[in-house]
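Ticket #4471: complex job returned nothing on first submit. Input attached below:
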Amino acid sequence: MDNESTYSGYSYKSSHSRSSRKHRERRDRQRSKSRDITLRGDKSVTIQATGEPLLDAESTRGDDRDDNWGETNTVVTGTSVDSVSNEDLARISKDLEDSLPLDCRRYLSPALGAILGLFALVTPLAFLALPQLLWRDTLEPCGTPCEGLYISLAFKLLILLISTWALFLRPPRASLPRFFIFRCLLLALVFLFVASYWLFYGVRVLDSRETDYRGIVGYAASLVDALLFIQYLALVLLEVRHLQPAFCLKVVRTSDGASRFYNVGCFSIQRAAVWVLDQYYSDFPVYNPALLNLPKSILSKKMSAFKVYNLGEENSTNNSTGQSRSMIAANARKRDNSHNEYYYEEAELERRVRKRKARLVVAVEEAFTHIKRHQDDEATVSSPKHPRELMDPREAAQAIFAPMARAMQKYLRATRQQSYHSMESIMNHLQFCISHNMTPKAFLECYLTPGPTLQYLDTSRGRQWTLVSEAPVTTSLRQGQVFSLSRPDFSLVVTVAPLPFLRLSEEFIDPKSHKFVMKLQSETSV
Amino acid sequence: MSFIPGQPVTAVVQRIEIMKLRHGDNLILGFSIGGGIDQDPGQNPFSEDKTDKGIYVTRITPGGPAHDAGLRMGDKIMQVNGWDMTVVTHDKARKRLTKKDEDVVRLLVTRKSLEQAVKQSMGGCPQTVT
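Support reply: We reran it on our side without changes. The output follows.
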């Protein structure tokens, strides 16, 4: 069970056209499969960023599941990968991929938690009810003290229910590759606890038909107390412990070097990975593959300058290395002007972008002057020559979109963002801005700066990330650890550094001690 | 002209005697002083050591009594008529120099060129004042 690894091929919906998206999905799946298989020197496990609840009693997660995911999901549950060769694994995964459409394993843990929680909640009531049902006649009557205990029991159960709902019944955020240790610990604790109570109850009360009902009620009350304490323990372990910052994580995206620093508390590696991904979607600018490389025209010039001829009778291996080495040396000696071209091309590109941006801004400003919001309390007197027709936001957006469409398209092309904004999305955004009384500048902020990835994300589908780490992923963070989260196109490399220990000392300044003197330099004639 | 706190100050000095000139109602000497223990020593352009709070000659009226007596700009005044001028306030220094009942002031001044001259002429008898 320890070496099990799962991954699911959730597709990544971009705003490409449907047919190209299908090809892309297939390609991504193939690529991600082969990529995951080759990462076997480190322990490579996957994270699915859709969800698994923390500790829920009643799971209500069926609603927020996307209904269509069944057709594009695949799950691989492989066995120990140490002694399986690459081809075998590929074959196995291919077979399983075709045959297992549903991801049962994800629901296992929350279901277990739900059952256990329900069982634990019902137990005190069972403790109270069973004697009444089975041997009501022989029970000693117990008056006021029992009623007091009933009331306290009821309220404690109510509080337990409310706090379970508040803490644990939340939509799941991620499915982790390994067991979440604290959660397992708590589930085991609850199970042991309730089981031991039932054992004691079964032996001492049911078997011997205990007649002291007040004792039984007190026993049930103590169970509820202990459940409340376990819930306190759960709260501390799952929610509170990681709030105090202890480490600083540096997250760098490998494709373009975008980096951020985050302060986190004591996490295990997999939980820290989920946390980092949450921040990634709202902090990092969207990954734009079109902006990555230098234009080929600059780079390729270096290579085509020299032709090396094979003159000697050396054997082939010597020859090839000698050839490449001489080529490299020759290239190094040649005067390298590619940086010049890069500089000028950059300047030219920037100038072009700025010009198009200026045109876009002017066009949008002008377009926005054509409409204005109709006030209901305005006088409805309108001259017969210009009857005002009232438009809803959609029509207003369509009316003013035409003059700015061309400028917008050219600007998006210049900044290589055209794949992220379709005409439909621009129209929707325009409609949104008009209804909320936004200025042209507010309308344009979405296009002038590349926003965070979350903005372009279709949130109904899950995202598939692979966690690559040298240490087992359930160990807690330590100084100097490095792990990375990879997707088919790029990956995020995370480095852990501890926050420094701060030694604060105090210095008392008397408010009356702020005194000043003039810096004099007088000159006196004598 | 640097000093070590706690040690006696030693310097090569020159004796200058200036006759005060009567100018209207006042007796003037014909130079200006700057510095003092209540002033900012960092702004003194003439001192070597910028923590030196002594009294320096900042200006000399050409043709005045001080100039004729041999006082030069940048001199540090060590004593006036026997009174110490190395640790005095600016106002005190002014008062010492402008006493109405004295016609003559005898100064002990020091400058860097004096030390150099003494070093050069190794056989000379330096007059040191401690």
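Chain A has 14 helices and nine strands. Closing as resolved unless it happens again.
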